[in-house]
Amino acid sequence: MTPPRPEDQPRRYPWEDDEYRPRTRPYPTPGPPPPDPPRRSARSTPPPDDRPTAPTPPKKLTVTRVAWFRVKQLSGRAVSAFRKAAHADGAKQSGLSSLTYAVMLNYAADAAMAVALANTLFFSAAAGESRGKVALYLLITVAPFALVAPVIGPALDRVQHGRRVALAASCVVRVLLSIAMALNFDNWGLYPAALGSMVLSKSFTVLKAAITPRVVPREITLSKTNARMTVFGLAAGGVFGAVAAGFAHLFGSPGALWFTAALCLANAYYCLRIPSWVEVTEGEVPTSLRARPHKAKRQALGRSVVVALWGNGAIRMLTGFLMLFAAFVVRAQTEGDGLMQVFLLGVIAAAAGVGSFLGNAVGARLHFGSPDQVVIGCVTAALLTVVVAAVLPGVVTAAAVGLVGATASSLAKVSLDAVIQDDVPDESRASAFGRSETILQLGWVFGGALGVLLPTEYWIGFTVLAVLLAVGLAQTVQTRRGTSLIPGLGGDRPLRPAPVVPGAGT
């Protein structure tokens, strides 16, 4: 007798079980109805209201008091709108809002640290001056991704408890490293501390990917959940990055690092507020990228998932390449003009930020019927834009690559999340998300390394990138057809492998 498929069973959530249900006030026992409350006169005190009250207008009208009143009024409305959006669709009951706050603070800490280190790590590695500085910059920016990818994903399959504590611990260690960077800003102690902080930041991202499936509300899908968290994170990164820039202007870069430490400390607190049911891992089945896993009791990923992984990996290679390559090209072509460097990089970064925000916003609202076609379309659009940038090199076309590449990356990631939710059994989704995140990190690593090592000429860099994207697109299409350019890692597998039954054979 074949075991029932997971999708044939009624879907349950951890917080629907009595053991993990949030404690509420017990219902009263059956009996006579309570007496009517006493009537209140018009002059009596109204009952207490938990809703936030509007600020009271000043009695004496002056310019300063009216301005302060308007600031409080608008900020109160903004906070109320934010809380409503963060708690929408049952996010507060499921625990998604708590995870969203933690993700927002992680984005904010990354943005603040980037602002603090901008003049030390970002611009110090002049491509034409010192190859030693280039190697150091490559170590600081790319090594964290290379270290995280092969370690964190497999570790999640072995250590399935204490994920909230692991998130909080990564934030606490980042507090200490931020303080170390602030105290050693002018010596070599800055670099290992920056390396460690970036490693922990990427570890946070992979751990978050494994926790997310357990806090998804019934009202929305997993892909929309990830898109929503990314939008909130990008908004938090922009706001707190601007605040960090203010600290850096007033107190120097160490001031921004102290602000980063405060953000990481707050993040540790919110990590511990994530509901306890994310620790319930009974019955989880680890996943494998191979069509026929060597180890028993591992769930093989289906063809649709592998198609989405190849396409997303190719686009992540583009985003990693552009981030680092643009910095070195702008540095080499505008040597000695710091203001122009900031302006040109700001144009490219702004285009990429708009694209990421747009892609996630669209992905959070729309439902794509064929995720495979969306992923292939995203890779194709990115490839065409890179070809144009190679033929017409310049800052304008580089910004266009940033806009289209970031939009395509966001939409392709939403499609990947949708495929994992539809094709991977419930018992293996956490592992599948952890594995997929490590693959995307490796794609970024490869592209970032190319961006540092290639000559600082737009047409050379974009030509090489176009060739690699064409290979990635061909592999994605071949995988969808059931074949592969790389044996064992393509489409020579079923669309939906049979689910591995937890505990079978034990």
Protein traits:
two-stranded parallel ribbon; 506 residues; Growth Hormone, Chain: A; mainly alpha; 2 domains; 15 helices; globular; 2 strands; 1% strand
Structural notes for this entry:
66% of the residues lie in helices and 1% in strands. It has 15 helices and 2 strands. The protein has helices spanning 63-86, 91-94, 96-116, 118-122, 131-158, 163-183, 190-211, 222-251, 253-272, 303-333, 338-365, 371-391, 395-423, 429-453, 458-481; strands at residues 287-288, 299-300. It has a two-stranded parallel ribbon. Mean pLDDT is 77; it is low at 6-13, 18-50 and 125-131.
What is the terminal separation in angstroms?
18 Å
Spatial arrangement of strands, main beta sheet? 1-2
Cα gyration radius (Å):
25 Å
Number of strand segments:
2
Strand count, sense and barrel status of the largest sheet are: 2 strands, parallel
Q: Tell me the domain tally.
A: 2
CATH class descriptor of the largest domain: Mainly Alpha
Estimate the global geometry from the Cα principal axes.
Answer: globular
Mean pLDDT: 77
Separate helix tally? 15
- The CATH H-level homologous superfamily of the largest domain: MFS general substrate transporter like domains
Structural class: mainly alpha
Q: Concise description?
A:
With 506 residues, this protein is mainly alpha-helical.
Draw up the topology in text.
Blueprint: H1 63-86, H2 91-94, H3 96-116, H4 118-122, H5 131-158, H6 163-183, H7 190-211, H8 222-251, H9 253-272, E1 287-288, E2 299-300, H10 303-333, H11 338-365, H12 371-391, H13 395-423, H14 429-453, H15 458-481
Parallel strand pairs: 1-2
Helix pairs in contact: 3-7, 3-8, 3-9, 5-7, 5-14, 6-7, 6-9, 7-14, 8-9, 8-11, 8-13, 10-11, 10-12, 10-13, 10-14, 10-15, 11-13, 12-13, 12-15
